[in-house]
Design a protein that fits this description.
896 residues, alpha+beta, Immunoglobulin-like, Neutral Protease, domain 2, five-stranded mixed beta sheet, protease
């Protein structure tokens, strides 16, 4: 109940099966924005596997009850209340009919049934269905649904719901009706309804079994030209799931609908996926390469849920990672295969680096804060707060470890057994683990700790080389570092950690690996299974002292502690055959230098950068044997939030000063190289959203961004103006505008201001592009003389800005609070006061969005004393004024 501040703690240990089951549901909707009439007819029976109950308790929120009937007769023994509907004196099996009214036009929470741009949409995960009708709104109650929708035909010509369309008819008074049937049992969180003035791009395909399927992407008419990439991504996802996992589309049709007002990225409702427009709409003029890649990934993710989430769903919300972690892993593998196929390791590594970079910056920070929780949480106050990086991204890493342990074939065997055992059921993370274990003949009892322990493990590595015996010993010890209290409380013992390692010789080549006791060497990368607090693994026949390449391909979500020298890191950056670890070496080298510089900046000491670091970056920049996409990733410095997280006391101003110094130093020292790379990687001709073309654009635009850091950025301004004027795609146009904004920090802002005005005029009818316009201004570099918070406050008064649209709020407010740390953490606390204002304002409109913004200060205790006190004051102010339990759970945990 997101609109109350009740703080009841729900615990996994208290789970009990539902006292009643609902076998089938027939829903009838008479759609009117102000008052929508809903009739629900359910076949209900007592659950033989649950304790008997004297009454039926249904959940309901913001509903007006009209009538209750059992087996066709009015049933007066009922009472509606704040939390739902209680029905007394019910038989063992019966037909329950409930008539009620909801008010979609007033629903600013965007949970349940609501109106956006004059159309009707739903969002029911996690607990939105109870805002539509009274129901057992929990994932372990699975029912078949028949849905009849009636509405004014002129206002709402398209009527959609889950499953297959079985009937359509015209009604008197200009109304019409559509009846939909979903033959597969599903929990209520997967229910969907859409009605409005929409058009569709359609394709018919044949699945691997020869069945014809209808695919539709529904959008508002003016967006139809931006649907081709989403459709192509859907077709690719369908074929990939057939080939990789043998899973076929089961319904006659599959629909995607785009809506601009949406709290999440997308939702996997059975057969009727509802998406934020951000993850559907794309053409070269409006979408960047990143947008194209994200659309492919999210379309794939939601389609893959059809099996991992829909056909097999969660028993309870504590098992959320059962569907989300598994499906994130599947979409990551899909994107990697689309980018590099199953065999192109270098191309796949680019995707792996992108995913790990997000995990480290966001999930590792979550593990160190007050919201730290296991992949399978033990308790929550508001389930919407647990759609977290831990559940999704760390959950995906846990699934990936199964594949690392068993290989692709072993993982597929486990997936096959999982579906054979549990198709059509609501199950647990343990059920998935047991299927993987049984399919591969392994005892995975210890592996369960990955689901129940919070925090990020640390692996300390010690090595010793015995030249006489030609033996190389690697000792691994696992522990948890400075974990949050929530993490320390869940730790139960050592984990089973797959730790991939390689050994590199003096010539830069991988050495063959033979562990003590093995008859012969096998390969150049070995996955060691660390199961104890400390273990030593000894390699034999090692002819020379090697350099270890540790945790190849990031084989487990851990922090590795090994004291490489700068020279060793530079050697790995130049030679490691594992592309991920090559990138990792550069990031370690940069992080070490940046943290040292930040300490000097905080002490007002002069800054300098060793020439060897510049030389290491120069080698990557000029190495044409490396792909442009990899070079771009390798040349991007660690982010300011990540660097601040590595400090004993985070000092955003010092980190920003250090990072800007290094960027300027690299720009100055390598100016000619950046100019050459810019010229070499231009992509003339028509725009192509391929990974190869995107890699060239990415490296070229990175070169432009570095050139904009020069004390004299005239080259960057000249190139950026020309690129902006001639761009035939949003990637290049947005990169040019960003470069002009960066250059304006040291030069006249005339070119940047002119480009900003032009950008707005060009795209004022494209909401997603205007989101970029807001975000670029919110994240631009500022100074004490030119604080960006003033720009953000001014933009909040812009006619195009509204707090009611989550995308618009995220583009300006979230971008400033989370994406511009040096300005947000201003010493005067103005950023925190602004944050508090916006959390309180959003809380009154949309608690889910407000709670996500509230998390911007959850790590406040890790900052310098002066900042800490100002953050505490802002948190206390929000705690005193927040009305939803969504926000209260976040700020109360932060303050506890």
């Amino acid at each position: 109940m997101s609109d109350t501040a009740t703080s009841t703690v729900i615990r996994r240990a208290d789970y009990t099966p539902p006292a009643f089951l609902i076998d089938s549901v027939a829903l009838e909707f008479d759609l009117v924005p102000e008052r929508t009439f809903v009739k629900s007819t359910m076949r209900v029976r007592r659950n033989p596997d649950a304790a008997p109950a004297a009454r039926l308790d249904l959940m309901g929120e913001a509903l007006e009850l009209v009538s209750v009937a059992i087996d066709g007769a009015p049933h007066p023994a009922h009472r509606a209340h704040e939390h739902g509907l209680t029905v007394d004196n019910v038989p063992d099996a019966f037909e329950l009919s409930i008539e009620s009214v909801c008010k979609p036009a007033e629903n600013t929470t965007l949970s349940g049934l609501y109106v956006s741009s004059g159309n009707f949409f739903t969002q029911c995960e996690a607990e939105g269905f109870r805002r539509i009708t009274y129901f057992l709104d929990r994932p372990d109650v699975m029912s078949t649904y028949t849905v009849t929708i009636r509405a004014d035909k002129a206002a709402y010509p398209v009527l959609l719901s889950n499953g297959n369309l079985v009937e359509a008819s015209d009604l008197p008074d200009g109304r019409h009706a559509a009846k939909w049937d979903d033959p597969f049992k599903k929990p209520s969180y997967l229910f969907a309804l859409v009605a409005g003035k929409l058009v569709a791009l359609e394709e018919r395909i044949r699945t691997s079994s020869g069945k014809e399927k209808l695919l539709q992407v529904w959008v508002e008419p003016h967006d139809l030209d931006k649907t081709r990439h989403a459709m192509d991504s859907l077709i690719d996802a369908i074929h990939w799931d057939e080939e990789r996992f043998g899973l076929e589309l089961d319904l006659d049709r599959f629909m995607i609908v785009a809506v601009s007002d949406f709290n999440m990225g997308a939702m996997e409702n059975k057969g009727l996926n509802i998406f934020n427009t951000k993850y559907v709409l794309a053409n070269p003029e409006t979408a960047t390469d990143t947008d194209f890649a994200n659309i492919e990934a999210v379309v794939g993710h939601e389609y893959f849920h059809n099996w991992t989430g829909n056909r097999v769903t969660c028993r309870d919300w504590f098992q959320l990672s059962l569907k989300e972690g598994l499906t994130v892993f599947r979409d990551q593998e899909f994107s990697a295969d689309m980018q590099g196929g199953a065999t192109d390791g270098a191309a796949r590594a680019v995707k792996r680096i992108e995913d790990v970079r997000v995990l480290r910056q966001m999930q590792f920070a979550e593990d160190a804060g007050p919201m730290a929780h296991p992949v399978r949480p033990e308790s929550y106050v508001e389930i919407n707060n647990f759609y977290t990086m831990t559940v999704y991204e760390k959950g995906a890493e846990v699934v990936r470890m199964y594949q690392t342990l068993f290989g692709r074939e072993g993982f597929r065997r486990g997936m096959d057994l999982y579906f054979k055992r549990h198709d059509g059921q609501a199950v647990t993370c343990d059920d998935f683990r047991h299927a993987l274990a049984d399919a591969n003949g392994r005892d995975l009892t210890q592996f369960e700790r990955w689901y129940s322990q919070a925090g990020t493990p640390r692996i300390a590595v010690r090595t010793a080389y015995d030249s006489a015996a030609r033996r190389y010993a690697v000792t691994l010890s696992q522990r948890y570092g400075d974990a949050a209290p929530a993490a320390r409380e869940t730790q139960k013992g050592p984990l089973l950690i797959p730790f991939a390692i390689g050994l590199i010789g003096r010539d830069g080549a991988d050495l063959p690996l033979r562990l003590e006791g093995e008859p012969a060497a096998g390969g150049t990368t070995r996955v060691l299974e660390l199961t104890e607090a400390e273990q030593t693994f000894t390699f034999v026949d090692v002819e020379q002292p090697p350099l270890p390449s540790l945790l190849r391909n990031f084989s487990a979500p851990v922090i590795v502690e090994y004291d490489y020298t700068n020279d060793e890191l530079a050697f790995l950056l130049a030679n490691d055959s594992d592309a991920f670890n090559r990138w990792e070496a550069g990031q370690r080298l940069a992080t070490r230098e940046l943290l040292a510089l930040a300490e000097r900046a905080a002490a007002n000491e002069p800054l300098s950068l060793d020439d060897s670091v510049v030389a290491a970056f120069a080698r990557v920049l000029t190495d044409e044997s490396l792909s442009p996409a990899f070079r771009e990733l390798a040349l991007v410095l660690p982010s300011e939030p990540y660097l601040a997280e590595q400090m004993a006391e985070a000092d955003p101003a010092a980190v920003h000063m250090a990072r800007q110094f290094v960027r300027q130093r690299l720009a100055t020292a390598l100016r000619e190289e950046w100019l050459a790379v810019y010229a070499r990687h231009e992509t003339p001709g028509p725009f192509e959203p391929t990974p190869q073309a995107a890699g060239h654009r990415g490296l070229k635009n990175l070169a432009l961004a570095y050139l904009a850091e020069l004390d004299d950025p005239s080259d960057a301004i000249r190139l950026a103006v020309a690129q902006y004027d001639s761009a035939n795609n949003m990637t290049d146009r947005a990169a040019a505008l960003s470069a002009l904004l960066a250059a304006s920090a040291t030069r006249s802002a005339a070119q940047a201001d002119g480009a900003l005005d032009d950008f707005y005029r060009r795209f004022e009818r494209e909401p997603l592009v205007i989101d970029k316009w807001f975000a670029m201004q919110a994240t631009q570099r500022g100074s004490q003389e030119r604080p960006i918070i003033d720009t953000v406050r001014r933009l909040m008064g812009h006619p195009a800005f509204t707090l009611r649209n989550p995308n618009r709020a995220r583009s300006l407010i979230f971008s400033f609070c989370s994406g511009n740390p040096a300005q947000f953490h201003a010493a005067d606390g103005s950023g925190y006061a602004f944050w508090a204002d916006q959390v309180i304002a959003l809380d009154a409109l949309n608690p889910q969005v407000a709670a996500r913004l509230a998390r911007a200060l959850e790590l406040w205790r890790r900052y310098t004393p002066a900042l800490r006190e100002r953050m505490r004051a802002a948190l206390e102010r929000v705690a005193a004024q927040a009305s939803s339990r969504d926000v209260r759970e976040i700020v109360e945990k932060a303050l506890a």
